[in-house]
């Protein structure tokens, strides 16, 4: 296996770690950058899902105390009705409910997700369109609701917003954060729930694609994919720390401008024949 394959995989892992938690769509970045590398070609939905295991492992590490507390309370609520009113047990149920849309839609549209929805014209359009949505939500959202006021209805709406990220260019965090701001949640609350909500969906998708890659193969070999996943973990952890500090003091407009600029650049590269839609 050539050193170039390892270098490219490490670079893609770096991109995954830098972009997964920011509202700029990591899947779009991998989809755009892959064909521009010397080896060329779309890294594929499988590679994207597997490397997301690295960034999600960073979430598990960073939020480990919250996750353990929620898991214990949720398990206790199954056997003891007295625990069902616990905020942590309730959060456990809200995460499960919020995961249903992406799980169901991901299975129903699996072929499109791995094929037609990876069209770079669509990716560029989603980068620009959801930049506008994020800007509107950040400017007009009341940003008053804390996370402990999350309702069942809002939990499900968060889930449908997360499901939109099945289309490269939307962004998992961008979709859920936009929905949260529109529903009146604070920036910190929307970002925190976005991280927690992603855990079941990303882990399930990543392990499913890992299993499939053993059967049908992956565009990138197992060794480089493992390296990319490890790089994504290390970089992703640092991004979580910085991002949560950033959203407590700054708005999302820099990400809005970046998304629009990237979308316009992709359209220009497509028009110039530098990139191919598929």
What does this structure look like?
There is one protein chain. By secondary structure, the protein is mainly α. The protein has 12 helices and no strands. It has helices spanning 3-19, 26-33, 45-62, 64-79, 87-108, 110-114, 120-140, 152-163, 172-182, 187-216, 222-247, 253-271. Helix 1 runs antiparallel to helix 2, helix 1 (3-19) packs parallel to helix 11 and helix 5 (87-108) packs parallel to helix 8 (152-163). The protein is globular.
Number of helices: 12
Order of helices and strands: HHHHHHHHHHHH
Calculate the mean pLDDT score and round it.
90
Helix- and strand-based class? mainly alpha
Radius of gyration from the alpha-carbon trace, in angstroms: 18 Å
Helix proportion: over 70%
Q: Return residue spans where pLDDT drops below 50 for at least 5 consecutive residues.
A: none
| Largest β-sheet summary | none
Measured between the Cα atoms of the first and last residue, the distance is 26 Å
Shape: globular
In total, how many beta strands? 0
- Beta-strand residue percentage: under 5%
